[in-house]
Write a structure and sequence with these properties.
It is rod-shaped and about 95 Å long. The protein is built from seven helices and no strands. By secondary structure, it is mostly helical. Helix 2 runs parallel beside helix 7 and helix 4 packs antiparallel against helix 5.
């Protein structure tokens, strides 16, 4: 039993000593390597901030879109749906509101006095040339705007994922170069003990660069897939909405 306790304490002491040695490598690094490490640390902090905020915003957008689709499928009147979605928000709800607002605008510009509302009433849409095209443009503008909102800040994750390893590699190359320059000016025969600290110090930059890049790449790919899914849902809803517009225009 005593041997196991001794072994455990020895392992913990070795781990603590390893952490101290890594910190010493960072503190003993040259100014260029320290600048690289500081830049990578800043990129990592910003990346994690974006990851948490984007995860929350995409989750909220998905919930709001699902809530709107439930209301849409259970509602038989566009006017009532328009009024009930004023405070819901979400990408698909905004697409619907943009399309319906365009219909209302066209109705007012044509001098119509009736307020379009029913999905099943032919009077829902003014009978004028180019209505479908105008509504389609309004839907596309809103979809592009909502997609841009969902994709905001993702470019920083992509940049971190692609650039951080190279920034860390630059710090490593600079540190190794500095170590060998120092060895060239030293007296005596260079030994592994003399070279190893400088190389280990330089490799810390590569390790931190990878630590900053890997979460950014994983998060970027995950968020892009979520945005694509929401984008597909917006396109499907837009197509269905335009089909309803076109169908009842032909009936008028």
């Amino acid at each position: 039993m005593t041997n196991w306790i001794y072994l455990l304490l020895e392992t913990q002491a070795a781990a603590a000593d390893g952490q101290i040695r890594v910190m010493n490598l960072v503190t003993d690094a040259g100014p260029v390597v320290k600048a690289v490490l500081l830049l990578l640390l800043l990129m990592s902090v910003v990346s994690w901030t974006i990851i948490f905020s984007k995860a929350f915003s995409l989750r909220s957008a998905t919930k709001k879109s699902d809530k709107f689709l439930d209301l849409y499928n259970s509602s038989g009147n566009f006017g009532n749906l328009y009024n009930s979605t004023k405070h819901i928000g979400g990408p698909i709800a905004e697409v619907f509101r943009a399309g319906y607002s365009e219909i209302l605008r066209l109705k007012r510009s044509s001098g119509g006095s009736q307020n379009p509302g029913s999905k099943t009433n032919p009077e829902v849409i003014a009978n004028e040339m180019g209505v479908v095209e105008l509504v389609d443009r309004a839907l596309n503008r809103t979809m592009a705007s909502e997609t841009a909102k969902l994709e905001s800040s993702l470019i920083f994750l992509a940049t971190t994922g692609s650039a951080a390893p190279f920034i860390g590699l630059f710090g490593t190359v600079w540190g190794i170069m500095t170590s060998f320059i120092g060895l060239a000016g030293s007296e005596g025969v260079p030994t592994l003990q003399a070279v190893a600290p400088g190389i280990a110090e330089a490799l810390v930059a590569t390790a931190i660069g990878l630590a900053a890049a890997i979460p950014a790449v994983i998060a970027y790919n995950f968020f892009v897939s979520k945005v694509k899914r929401i984008d597909v849902e917006m396109e499907n809803f837009s197509s269905e909405f335009l089909n309803i517009v076109d169908r009842y225009i032909k009936k008028v």
